[in-house]
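Weekly puzzle thread! Below is a chain. First person to post its structure in token form gets bragging rights.
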Amino acid sequence: MRTGLARRVLAAGLVSLVAVTGCGVRPSDVIRAGDPPSGPVARTPTTTLYLVKNGRLSAVTRPGPPLSQADTLALLAAGPTTAEQAQGLTTDVPPEAAPFSVTAAPGRQPGHLAVNPSTPAGKLSALAVEQIVCTAAAMTPESPVWVSVVGAGQNIGRRNCPG
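Winning reply:
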């Protein structure tokens, strides 16, 4: 009985060995296929917003065509998408803060922006100001970026993104 088991194990091993070694792939020389791909990688354009999660800023990217700084800031006032809300994201920027205008601060060095919400700047929460400052800074190639939030004659002052 043991001889029959040993023969079956040996036969199974030989069949496996034949299957592995006789698969039909033959060695070949190197096959030239030309140069590797080069050039810039195509990227899907995105917009970065700073929303709020658990009382802290959270950077969120949304796919889509490039937007102006004012239109991107208006997205803060519009609030998170349904999918973002499901992740616990909110906004402190009130809807009445839109529309925004964004200009290079006059008489200042490059990298200083003036953001004008449609509401008095003093009525914005500290978290809403941080959302506005960080979102505006994310769209500016200069670094560091200073942002002044000025609305209805009230100036929050020059700030940069804390995170």
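Puzzle host: Confirmed. Bonus trivia for everyone else. The chain has a mean pLDDT of 82.
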